[in-house]
Every structure is written in C-alpha cells, then in structure tokens.
Amino acid sequence: MNLDQYPSSAQVKWRPHAEAEYPGQIQPLPSATEALQVVHRLRTHKLQLELQNQALRETGQQLEHRLKRYTDLYDFAPVGYAALAPDGAIQEINLAGAALLGLERAYLINRPLGRFVSADTQPAFKAFLEHALGGMAEASCEVVLALDGEPSRPVRLEGIGLVSENDRRCHIALLDITDRQQTEERLQRSLEQY
Q1: Of 19, 78, 80, 127, which has the fewest beta carbons less than 10 angstroms from its beta carbon?
Q2: Where are the alpha helices (DSSP H) in 22-160?
Q3: How far apart are CA 72 and CA 66, in angstroms?
C-alpha cells in the first residue's frame, strides 16, 4: 500500500517542508521487486537465527549434562577434595571432605583448613601448602585432624598448586589413613612380640 495514495492533511501540509529541510533523507518506497527481495532476505535471516538458536539450545543442554556429571563426580567421590586459597582457607570442598572434617560444607567455606590440623602436625601442613603454591608443584604430607568431640584422625594430603596471573589456589585430596596406620601399628606390635 502506497502512503501517498491517501495523504492526510498533515502529510500534505508538512511534507514539502520535511523534504526541503532534510533533502535525500526521505527515501521513496521500494518497488514490488525490491520489497520481495527484502522479505526474502528477512525470511532467510529469520531461518538462520532459528538454526543458531537451536544450536545454542543443544549446546546449553550438553553443558548442563556435563556440569551434572562433573558435579556428581566431584561431590560423590569416595575421597575428600578441596580447593584452598593461599592462606589455607577452604574455597570449595566436596561431600566426602566435609564428612572427614565433621561439618556441613556450607560451614567450611572460607574457614582455614589449618584450624582442623593438630598443633604437632601444623608445620608439615604449612610446608605442604607453601610447596604446592610454589607453582605447578605436587605436594603431599600426613597430618592429624583434631576435631571437636571426636578422636583424632590421620589424613594424607595430596595436592597441586594452580598458579596463574589472576588466581592462586591449591587443589587437594584428603585421604583418611586411619586403617593403614592401625594396620602398621598392629604389624609393629607383632614384630616386637616375635
């Protein structure tokens, strides 16, 4: 439909002024062929956007699936995992790690892991953390967890430092070695008896 076919009184009155004031800015209406080309380009663009949208949805679903798998792997691992800040504060911890420390995960975030380490194994823990955060270095040590109201628990820490321009942290595995230590003690007593 051509707007010039049914001009309103305002169009008739102001159109010459607009054309004089803004020459070359008022475009004539496209021909039928040009209009069809524009419609074709818009439909093509719409189909491209729909295909991109579908691809983004599929990628989003794949990412959600991978995140669930990663979360299951991390949270339900049979050993404790944690990420520590350079000062030893717990940034992340899985369910097994929280159970090893005897508290819910939410209460452990931003608390120093060293708080749970016995006084006599504190130097080993500090040396472990310094070594791990010295670069991409693997470190390990054995400490004793001194938990409120529970017997002390020997734990082996295996860790690696992740150091970049923007971040320094230590990822650790906490392995309960109570059974191994008890077995070693029984073996030592047996050797002493015989």
Answers
A1: 78
A2: 32-75, 95-101, 105-108, 122-132
A3: 10
Instruction: Tell me the two tokens of residue 56.
Output: 């983004």
Q: Which amino acid is at 125?
A: F
Q: What is the pLDDT of residues 75-126, one digit of tens each?
A: 889 999 999 999 999 999 999 999 999 999 999 999 999 999 999 999 999 9
Torsions phi, psi of 145, nearest 5? -85, 125
Q: Are 146 and 116 in contact (CB under 8 A)?
A: yes
SS3 27: coil
Joined tokens for residue 172: 């650790």
In whole angstroms, give the CA distance from residue 94 to residue 161.
18
Confidence of residue 2 (pLDDT cuts 50, 70, 90): low
Q: Cα 14 vs. chain centroid, distance in angstroms?
A: 60
First-last CA distance in the chain = 109
Q: What is the topology classification, in CATH, of domain 77-192?
A: Beta-Lactamase (3.30.450)
φ/ψ (deg, to 5) at 2: -90, 125
Q: So where are the chain's domains?
A: 29-75, 77-192
